[in-house]
Amino acid sequence: MDANGFARLLEHLRTFTPRNEIVLEEVPAPQKLASFAFAFSADVSNGKIGDEEDELASGRFVLLHEPGGQDTWEGEFRCVTFVRADVDTAMQEDPSLPEFGWSWFLAALENAECTIAAPSGTVTRVSSASFGKLSPRHNESEIEIRASWTPVVTTPSELIKHISGWCTLIADVAGLEEVPEGVTSINLSRTR
């Protein structure tokens, strides 16, 4: 795929509309990892308006393309992601939280009917305690999922399923309720 083909692919990917609580914003992509790259950030809120709105999770999605591929990728495309969300203390103390995080990642892609190769990543629990002038703040706990995978696609337009699966992952990590099958979330053009 040449620069024009990648530009057409990006036009198609930009048509993706996430559920209303997820705001996608195109951001500069890393330049030295592949010949072509595209990236966006995501912020997930509770969907309420005004003072009631709270950020629940955030993340970044990067699509890399190297014509001819790279050996470690096992393909010409590579998806790279980072997702973080606050978790309650009980969840943070659960020793199986990393395994749950990884299974959420795999299940989100599987539910979006994505075929993947060479998945890799880490799931980290982060716990912070505040001291001194920050001591009135509550202790904070987070989960961070960093992952990469090679999307196995017959046509590049199928990459939109991988973005959809990733949006499901960030919604799951944020604790959003699943949108029932057959129900369409009303989107208020929150994509930037």
Order of helices and strands: HEEEEHHEEH
C-alpha-based Rg, rounded: 18 Å
Structural class, from helix and strand content? alpha+beta
Annotation field: number of helices = 4
Given as residue ranges, the uncertain stretches (5+ residues, pLDDT < 50) are 186-192
Q: Termini, distance in Å?
A: 27 Å
Approximately what portion of the residues adopt beta-strand conformation? 35-45%
Portion in helices? 10-25%
Per DSSP E runs of 2 or more residues, the count of β-strands stands at 6
Mean pLDDT: 84
Instruction: Order the strands across the largest sheet as they lie in space.
Output: 1-2-3-4-6-5
Largest sheet: 6 strands, antiparallel
Shape: elongated
**Total discrete domains:** 1
Pfam family, one: DUF3000
Q: Could you characterize the architecture of this molecule?
A:
By secondary structure, this protein is of the alpha+beta class. The chain has one domain (3-174). Helix content is 24%, strand content 36%. A six-stranded antiparallel beta sheet has the order 1-2-3-4-6-5, covered by helices on one side. β3 (55-70) and β4 (75-86) form a beta hairpin. α3 runs antiparallel to α4. The two termini are 27 Å apart.
